[in-house]
Write a structure and sequence with these properties.
Blueprint lengths: L29 E5 L2 E5 L6 E4 L1 H9 L6 E5 L5 H6 L3 H6 L2 E3 L4 H7 L3 E6 L2 E2 L7 H6 L3 E4 L17 H16 L2 H21 L7 E5 L7 E3 L4 H9 L2 E2 L8 E3 L2 H7 L3 E6 L8 H10 L7 H4 L3 E5 H4 L5 H13 L2
Parallel strand pairs: 3-4, 3-6, 4-5, 6-7, 6-8, 9-11, 9-13, 13-14
Antiparallel strand pairs: 1-2, 10-12
Helix pairs in contact: 6-7, 7-13, 8-13
Amino acid sequence: MRRLVALALVLSTTGCGATIAQEESAGRAVTVQNCGQQVTYDKVPSKVVTNDTGIAELMFALGLADRMAGYVIGTSQQGDVASSPWKADFAKVPKLAEEINKEVVQGAGADLVFAGWNYGFSESTGFTPEALKGMGVATYQLTEACLNGVGKQRGIMPPLEALYTDLRNLGTIFGVSEKAEELIAGYREQVAGAEELMRGKARPKVFLYDSGLDQPFTAARNAAAQDVIGKAGGDNVFGDLDDSWTTVGWEAVVARNPEVIVINDYADGDASTPEQKRAFLESYPPLREVPAVKDKRFFVLPYAALVESPRNPAAIESFARFLASG
């Protein structure tokens, strides 16, 4: 019987916590394509406010901690900070709040907000790029969470391409393109190595369980978890849904008969810990005959590894090793 795997992702410490020298081109206005729009930045931002763990880590991975006024994360993400390869940067940069809003941004004197739809930006709260523009604050939107023009659905490109796109765009905006390309090359190599671990082997059907007792919240094809699962050698059972993170029904989970369940280590709802989530899954009668539950094939990944972040490649490698082990 396989035991529940609790993973602490470890990335190379090379460059972690480092401040990267800016390139000469950083002094002029630059234009990048962000969520389908051309966006111009007249200067290199120096007081950036980020929302969410993975978004802050994108800045840290590029050596841009000194360009941040602070970060915003909820209590459910504190475990991600403790396990972060950039823990030293989290300690150095101020935590501003647990929920982002206009007052937090104004209080920090921010000149750029880096967030995403449902990763801080929200029409319902009025905290939007357009509203911030009216305050004289520039924005950059996380590509994983770009609205795709169909209601509130999110995602406009494959998840890893979203990661590489954001690294390149941030490299251009902050004048650290060389560092961005170095990271991308390393991540591509790491992912390619992980793919070799399962090459020629049967691809198990995988269900990503984020949260929810009445209805499960899971990853569709535009969420970072899609590539974490797929590049590791599995098939996301909800990879046919054109969305990022979304709610489905338990009947659909049973019908798709997953052979492995990835549990998101994210405190949300009644079952907050990975152990509580697994206990629920094993005790829920409709799931009793699902192969993943019968065979006790569970794997845990931290939240910051399953949303777009520089932890994605290491998560792919770790999950591939789990799948390859049988």
